[in-house]
Specification:
CATH topology of the largest domain: Endonuclease III, domain 1
Number of strands: 0
Distance between the termini: 24 Å
CATH class of the largest domain: Mainly Alpha
CATH architecture of the largest domain: Orthogonal Bundle
Number of domains: 2
Length: 213
C-alpha cells in the first residue's frame, strides 16, 4: 500500500527526532534584541561568522537603546567582516531606532509588525516568532527550501512561501519549531548544496534525491 504524505512526514521527522531530540539555533544571544540582530546578520552569512562578530558588537551595544545611539560608522566597524556590511549596518541602526521609538523597546510578536522593521523579511520574522515566542510557524531559509524538496517533503517549486505553506500543512503546530531547526541543521552539515554527504545521511532510504541519483 502506498504511503500517504502524512505518514511520510511522520517517518521522516521521527528519524530527525531520534537523531537530535532537542535542536536549537546555533546563534548566540542573551536577549530578544540580540537574537534579532544575529538573525539579520546571518542573511547570506554563516552562523559561525555571526558568532565571531556579535560578542564585541553586543559588548558595546547590548540592547536597542544603546545601538540606536551609535553612529552607522561605529556599527559598521564591528560588523564589517560579515556579508553585505553596508546594508546590514543601515538595517541594524534603523531597527534599533524603530524598536525604541515605535515598539517601546519590545521585539514585536507578529509577522506583520516584525516585517515593518528595515531589513526584516518573512523568514527573519518567522525565526523570531518561533525561537522567542514559540509561535507555530515555519521559517524557510535556503537550507529548509533545498532539503525539504530533496527529501520529497514538498514538490518542486521556486516559491519559498509555497514551501512554508506545504510544510505547515503536514507538520503539527507543536513540532514546527523543532522541524525548522532539523531541516536547517541537516542542510548545513549533511545535505549541503553542492556536495551532499549522502553517505552520512540517515534518510537515504526515504530521500527522493538520493533514490533518483
Amino acid at each position: 500500500m502506498k504511503q500517504s504524505k502524512a505518514e511520510f512526514y511522520k517517518v521522516v521527522f521521527d528519524l530527525f527526532r531520534k537523531n537530535n531530540p532537542l535542536p536549537q539555533t546555533e546563534l548566540r544571544y542573551e536577549n530578544p534584541f540580540q537574537l534579532l540582530v544575529a538573525v539579520v546578520l546571518s542573511a547570506q552569512c554563516t552562523d559561525e561568522r555571526v558568532n565571531q562578530i556579535t560578542p564585541k558588537l553586543f559588548r558595546y551595544y547590548p540592547d536597542a537603546e544603546s545601538m540606536s545611539k551609535a553612529s552607522e560608522k561605529e556599527i559598521f566597524e564591528l560588523i564589517k567582516t560579515c556579508s553585505y556590511p553596508n546594508s546590514k549596518t543601515r538595517y541594524l541602526h534603523a531597527i534599533a531606532n524603530h524598536i525604541v521609538t515605535k515598539f517601546n523597546n519590545k521585539i514585536p510578536d507578529t509577522v506583520e509588525e516584525l516585517t515593518t522593521l528595515p531589513g526584516v523579511g518573512r523568514k527573519t520574522a518567522n525565526v523570531i516568532l518561533s525561537v522567542l515566542y514559540q509561535k507555530p510557524v515555519i521559517a524557510v531559509d535556503t537550507h529548509v527550501f533545498r532539503v525539504s524538496q530533496r527529501i520529497g517533503l514538498v514538490d518542486y517549486t521556486r516559491s519559498f512561501r509555497r514551501v512554508e505553506e506545504e510544510l505547515a500543512t503536514y507538520i503539527p503546530p507543536d513540532q514546527r519549531a523543532h522541524a525548522h531547526h532539523w531541516l536547517i541543521l541537516h542542510g548545513r552539515y549533511i545535505c549541503k548544496a553542492r556536495k551532499p554527504l549522502c553517505h552520512q545521511c540517515f534518510l537515504t532510504n526515504l530521500c527522493l534525491y538520493f533514490n533518483k541519483s
